[in-house]
Structure to design on (604 residues):
């Protein structure tokens, strides 16, 4: 659960508890209604954090609910209802959490089994990560030669750092640099886009997407985010030839994505000349 | 602030003002600022007492004219005042040319991020009269880690048994604190063992000097991790162990021929990482941490926490050997 979800859960838990506490004793139907409302935060927590969280929420709500057992003028029937409510808290936490856990497993399995049909590739939605090296051009040429003329969609993804101020003595040249890089990259991306269109991929199906990074964030993090947000079938990227030392020092985008992407990854390996590192 | 007021403050601090004293609020020309001059920053006068000196990489005692040791005339505290000296340069690391930047903006961001964090130097940034970003740093009393280890006048074996566990245990939290920077999207930039000071007052190791920067888009903390490996090797080896040192040392005569290229750093082919070959009493787990930075490595550390988890586990093996001599 993230901070926002935790905050919502806490507000719901204490909101229900406080309102319930201040309901006059005579309003029995309202008490019964609020007793049921305790299930809402339990179900919410279980849905976001699974079985463990659900059971923990049920225990917490039971503790919060406990004073109502000891309030005066409670009838035997009402106490029996309270006991039933507590049992219901735990059943809800357990089963909703279990359902969430098993759903997550199903989704992960589906992601692992989700593969592109290699025979035609028709209808595929492809994410093509571009760095500004000659190998990206070679990869586009290669891809166009193999997959051109098909009804596929390609998104050219470019990741750039929008804050380069630490590379300059002041902000002004940093902004100029970002702007100049942006213009050069736009031209480069247009060139690649035209190459793919020339290979027979429908014009309207070749999109360009620029993603900005601020601070020290690995490029592969942004690509993984894009894969998560978009409905892609295949990730295409270039694999630069690197020594072990270079990989250690600079990292390697395709290797990380091969490890962590949930969809098929196609990496186009280059010669040392094509692999000249992206600036 | 006029000259009379400044002179009165200098006298109040028990010092004499120089006849050639200059009072400046524009620090652009830092080469012209000498001991005895006063910089007025944000209405606070700082009396320059000396230029700080570079250490490490054979640059010992080269003056750093952009780093002034000063006395705050308002409080009497010693402050290190770092003036704007932006530079971009290419340094060769493992045969690869890396662009480095000395960035005042970056250092100011790190100072802001580590405010209140005890394992980093503290300070703040102010703009001088013409907008130069000047960083005012609290002075830390104590030796740098390289001097602390270098001053252990004993054999490696004696050091290993008597001091290594204490030093490594003491420095672990400091090394791990790099992950705090990384989690905040920042790098240290110049992770070296002379950039760790042992603060005698607080009795803890603390990072200094955050103005270096580099840009590796896919591995943004790469140089920090490499520096971490070098620091651990230096602590374990009681200094950097280079091929030339090993070859020249008669104690290692029988070992030199057995050294393989993989025994050395993956990036610096003359820096020995497989220290167990020359100091066989180093426990295997501790040596394995070092081997992650050697030519034997097939998987690499990707975060500071990964390194420190292994290092802390390895410290357990040192507990049995410590103080046995």
């Amino acid at each position: 659960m993230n901070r926002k979800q935790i905050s919502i859960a806490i507000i719901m838990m204490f909101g229900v508890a406080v309102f319930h506490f201040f309901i006059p004793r005579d309003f029995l139907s309202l008490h019964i209604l609020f007793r049921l409302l305790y299930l809402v935060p339990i179900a919410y927590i279980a849905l976001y954090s699974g079985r463990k969280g659900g059971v923990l929420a049920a225990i917490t709500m039971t503790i919060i609910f406990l004073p109502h057992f000891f309030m005066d003028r409670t009838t035997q029937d009402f106490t029996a209802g309270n006991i039933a409510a507590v049992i219901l808290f735990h059943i809800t936490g357990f089963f909703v959490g279990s359902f969430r856990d098993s759903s997550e497993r199903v989704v992960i399995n589906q992601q692992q089994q989700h593969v592109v049909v290699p025979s035609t590739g028709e209808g595929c939605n492809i994410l093509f990560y571009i760095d500004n090296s000659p190998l990206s051009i070679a990869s586009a040429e290669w891809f166009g030669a193999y997959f051109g003329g098909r009804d596929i969609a390609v998104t050219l993804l470019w990741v750039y750092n929008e804050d380069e101020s630490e590379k300059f003595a002041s902000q002004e040249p940093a902004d100029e640099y970002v702007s100049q890089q942006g213009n050069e990259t736009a031209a480069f991306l247009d060139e690649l886009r035209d190459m793919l269109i020339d290979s027979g991929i429908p014009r309207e199906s070749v999109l360009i997407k620029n993603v900005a990074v601020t601070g020290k964030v690995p490029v592969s993090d942004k690509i993984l985010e894009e894969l998560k947000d978009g409905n892609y079938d295949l990730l295409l990227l270039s694999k630069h030839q690197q020594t072990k030392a270079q990989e250690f020092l600079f990292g390697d985008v395709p290797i990380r994505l091969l490890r962590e992407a949930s969809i098929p990854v196609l990496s186009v390996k280059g010669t040392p000349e094509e692999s000249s590192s992206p600036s | 602030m006029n000259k009379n007021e400044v002179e009165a403050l200098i006298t109040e601090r028990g010092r004499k003002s120089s006849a050639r004293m200059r009072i400046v609020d524009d620090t652009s020309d830092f080469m012209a600022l000498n001991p005895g001059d006063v910089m007025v920053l944000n209405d606070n006068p700082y009396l320059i007492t000396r230029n700080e000196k570079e250490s490490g990489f054979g640059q010992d005692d080269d003056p750093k004219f952009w780093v002034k040791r000063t006395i705050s005339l308002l409080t009497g505290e010693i402050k290190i005042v770092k003036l704007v000296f932006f530079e971009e340069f290419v340094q060769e690391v493992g045969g690869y040319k890396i662009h480095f930047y000395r960035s005042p903006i970056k250092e100011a961001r790190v100072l802001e991020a580590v405010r209140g964090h005890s394992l980093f130097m503290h300070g703040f940034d102010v703009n001088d009269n013409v907008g130069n970003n000047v960083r005012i740093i609290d002075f830390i009393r104590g030796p740098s880690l390289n001097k602390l280890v270098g001053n252990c006048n004993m054999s490696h074996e004696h050091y290993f048994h008597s001091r290594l566990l204490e030093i490594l245990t003491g420095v672990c939290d400091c090394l791990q604190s790099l992950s705090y920077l990384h989690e905040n999207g920042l790098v240290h930039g110049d992770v070296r063992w002379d950039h760790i000071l042992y603060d005698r007052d607080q009795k803890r190791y603390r990072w200094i000097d955050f103005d270096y920067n580099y840009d590796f888009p896919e591995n943004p903390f790469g140089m920090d991790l490499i520096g971490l490996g070098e620091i651990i090797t230096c602590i374990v080896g009681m200094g950097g162990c280079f091929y030339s040192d090993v070859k020249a040392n008669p104690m290692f005569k029988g070992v030199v021929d057995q050294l393989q290229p993989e025994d050395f750093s993956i990036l610096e082919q003359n820096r020995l990482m497989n220290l167990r070959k020359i100091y066989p009493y180093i426990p295997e787990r501790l040596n394995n941490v070092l081997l992650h930075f050697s030519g034997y490595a097939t998987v690499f550390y990707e975060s500071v926490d990964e390194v420190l988890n292994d290092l802390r586990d390895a410290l357990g093996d040192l507990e049995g050997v410590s103080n046995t001599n």
